[in-house]
Amino acid sequence: MKTYLLLFFSFLAFAFFPSCDGESTIDFPNEVIQRSNVSDSLFSILLDDAKLLCLNIYTIEERREIYDIEIRESHLGPIIAALQMVQIDSLLSETTEIREYNIHTLCPIHLYQGILKADSTSKKIKSWIQNGYSGHGFLDDLVYEYNITIDSVSPTLYNYNSEVGINHAALASELKRLSFIIDARATTCIGDGSQIEIIDYTSDFIHFIYSYGWGDCPSGCIKRHYWEIGVYGSGIVEIIDESGDKLP
Q: What is this structure's pTM?
């Protein structure tokens, strides 16, 4: 997966791909995305980070992309490049701390799992569970495209999972259109923890806030430390501000 995405994002970087606002452009150099010292496993995590950050921007800005099941690759490229710059930067003590505390976006399961209610006697649901397809053309197109599997939780409740990270809230909206599905929604996380946010982005700059929380985080972190990081298309990573509680 990483090889394909590297080639795709490299092309986008060269071509000045659009950012999540769909209007301005972010010029992050393709050689940043191609840095070999970022492992495949870390790249996959950064990809999920970028997808969740895009979904957050879509929601805040009330953009029409929030209704799309697939998160646009052209929107992911600049964010992945900027996140990767933070991961490979070795000059700032702050970025070293971010790596040490393993700070990524909260609730990546939101990209991979949903829950639905359906009539337990539905032949289409039974076929989906037993055979991997439902016999309903529209649903099977989604199942095949995103490799969606389903498991029974109770007589009328089911978990479904996609192989790749997608906008499960948008998928749930499509599933609820089907007569044999009573309700559907994306899986959400309970609790608190580390987080990344984007508070500003321009043609060659993204402003991140990384935060690390601790102390009874399942109920809501009691303490939190913040790093404000600026990433430039030129490859420069700078610390803008550091605040919050003293790190444990």
A: 0.87
